[in-house]
Amino acid sequence: MAPLPSKLAYVPFVSVENMMRLVHHIGIEKVLTDLADQIEADFRRWPLFDKTPRVASHSDVGVIELMPTSDGETYGFKYVNGHPKNMAEGLQTVTAFGLLADVNSGYPKLLSEMTLLTALRTAATSAMAARHLAPKGARTMAMIGNGAQSEFQCLAFKAVCGIDSVRLYDIDPAATERCARNLAGSGLTVVKCRSSQEAIEGAQIITTCTADKQYATILTDNMVGSGVHINAIGGDCPGKTELHRDILLRSRIFVEYPPQTRIEGEIQQLDPDHAVTELWQVIAGDVAGRADDRQITLFDSVGFAIEDFSALRYVAQAIAGTPFFTRLDMIADPDDPRDLFGMFQRAADSVAA
After folding, report:
1. Catalytic residue flag (residue 236)
2. Where does the signal peptide begin and end (predicted)?
3. Are residues 142 and 261 in the same domain?
């Protein structure tokens, strides 16, 4: 008879269903606030982490990436794709899953869906950055690009930054209608706009989140006045931008990890030595953030592995003592570590029986 798996063989797994149940159990705004705090805490210890640009496999239709990091005690990675053409085929543009492992043993200790979790952590990171960079008292955000990320972004800025009004625009009016419908009852004042120019009127924060895999100009230089904060989260690949180059030249630019952002972010339009500020330095108190009320601040966000690590750590803590995960028999763990074949062979007896 094959022996039962040991406790070490089981890895907690958070499915899409359980992720949704967990977030509803805690409350989405609470989750977004908690994630923002967790990500900020890890940014404060940024120098401890292994850092590398994501490992990308590009094709004509999209990209598949691995995003690894470690703080020396826990290792984490995320698998994620980006396929803009998927939307027209009824598929998600982005899907993801992630894993945490114990550095000491190498054994996995969490496996989780990350399609939903990536949307949550991206929104939480945006709002966390704005907490340090946006003008004081900002209450209105323009949300340009009303795809799968948009509602999460709006709710994160409400929960973390106190935004109470959002102005929506998308080239597809149906996307704007859906976003407005989903935000009904959220406590936000929602204004549906007919152009990006109309959307940014009166907004102190401008979030751009479009998915077309090409150079684009979502915002032109004359559209952006002084004193705003721009949260540029679309793009994220070579050859994909959203902002006119002149906006970048007028802005103080904050990034996650320059070697990655210079390849994938808005700053791929600029000279390789153009000055940028790493966001972690602001959070750690080493460098000042916004200098004055007239300054344009730009968070050129492409997403970085440490943010996913933070989100996975949060989930690992949040599921403890809850029913919102299952245990997967993932690790072969024989009683005698040298007798893997013996464990395998004994399983034949149970099959024959």
Report:
1. yes
2. none
3. yes
Given the residues 236, 273, 286, 329, select the one marked as catalytic.
236
Q: What is the CATH number of the domain that holds 205?
A: 3.40.50.720
Q: Which domain holds residue 145?
A: 130-303
pLDDT in tens, 170-217: 999 999 999 999 999 999 999 999 999 999 999 999 999 986 656 667
Is the overall model pTM greater than 0.70, yes or no?
yes
pLDDT cut 70: percent of the chain above it: 95
Specify whether 144 is located in the same domain as 290: yes
Q: At 84, is the pLDDT very low, low, confident or very high (cuts 50, 70, 90)?
A: confident
| Domain contains 1 | no
Note whether 298 and 320 are same-domain residues. Answer: no
Rounded to an integer, what distance in angstroms lies between the CA atom of residue 127 and that of residue 154? 9
Same domain? For 181 and 53 the reply is no
Total number of domains constituting the chain: 2
Residue 77: inside a domain, yes or no?
A: yes
Lowest mean pLDDT across 28-42, 57-71, 127-141, 333-347:
333-347
- Residues 245 and 157 both lie in one domain: yes
One domain for residues 150 and 281: yes
